[in-house]
Amino acid sequence: MTPRSARSAHKQLAHLVADRLRVEILEGRLKPGEWLRQERIALAQGVSQMPVREALRQLVAEGLVEHIPYRGTRVVEFTVADIEDLYACRLFIEGMAARHAAAVITDEELREIAGLHERMLPCDTPESLPEYRELNRRFHTAIFQASRRSFLIRSLAQLWAAFPTMLWSNVPLVAYRTAPGRDASDAAEHEAIVTALSARDPEAAETAARAHISAAGRALLTALGAAPHPLPEAPSFQSLSLATGGRHRSRSFPHAEEES
């Protein structure tokens, strides 16, 4: 084996170990706060410690685990403040994505989103909870992908890579069932989003998406035992447009060598 092929094989092995650990974290088999010892992981995976070390670095970069100096690496734990911040980010970014999606969404994309909504309706929790949460993830992903806004898509794809699956595993009350009282509310809120998208109404789509995310955040905080206060009120995309005179920012920035 040449040095180049050896490096490639090592990199692939590190990715494989990272993929396995990621699944265990997202499925709750590795619990929040659990320490990830390189020796134990290497023995369980049948590999040396070097690819394990690289895999853990990758998961640290993704935000799934954290490195504590002089102690090791552990699965991250979410605090109440973390949950508030996560939902505040979703409130604004997904609201923007829904607004943009409503303006450019195709009939095919609408059928996909409406179909996912319809498939969620008969899911009986907790028996169908894994299926419901996967459909829910696909529902929200289809909406922000329909926005055709590359930065929003990248940001939300990274957020949804671990959230909310991992976040739910941090809260025992909702780890294996939905938050109390959210089944009917989720369905109605999803319906409102689908209706706004079908009407090609950007303002209504943003409003419906923000209302849904805000309600879901409050329910999760309540399940955590926190006293949910209103999430930070993010400005709507419309208010930002008004503040900037409604100017579009689709132009490219000049390269460094073009600057005077």
Explained architecture:
- With 260 residues, the protein is mainly α.
- A two-stranded antiparallel sheet has the order 1-2.
- It folds into two domains: 3-75, Arc Repressor Mutant, subunit A, CATH 1.10.10.10; 80-243, Up-down Bundle (Four Helix Bundle (Hemerythrin (Met), subunit A)), CATH 1.20.120.
- The protein is 65% helix and 3% strand.
- Helix 4 packs across helix 7, helix 5 (107-120) packs antiparallel against helix 6 and helix 10 (182-198) runs antiparallel to helix 11.
- The protein contains twelve helices and two strands.
- The chain has helices at residues 3-26, 38-45, 49-62, 80-104, 107-120, 129-145, 150-162, 165-169, 172-175, 182-198, 202-223, 237-243; strands spanning 65-68, 72-75.
- It is globular, with a radius of gyration of 21 Å.
Compact description:
The chain has 260 residues and is mostly helical. The protein has helices spanning 3-26, 38-45, 49-62, 80-104, 107-120, 129-145, 150-162, 165-169, 172-175, 182-198, 202-223, 237-243; strands at 65-68, 72-75.
Give a quick set of tags describing it.
12 helices, 260 residues, globular, single chain, Four Helix Bundle (Hemerythrin (Met), subunit A), disordered C terminus, mainly alpha, 2 domains, two-stranded antiparallel ribbon, Arc Repressor Mutant, subunit A, 2 strands
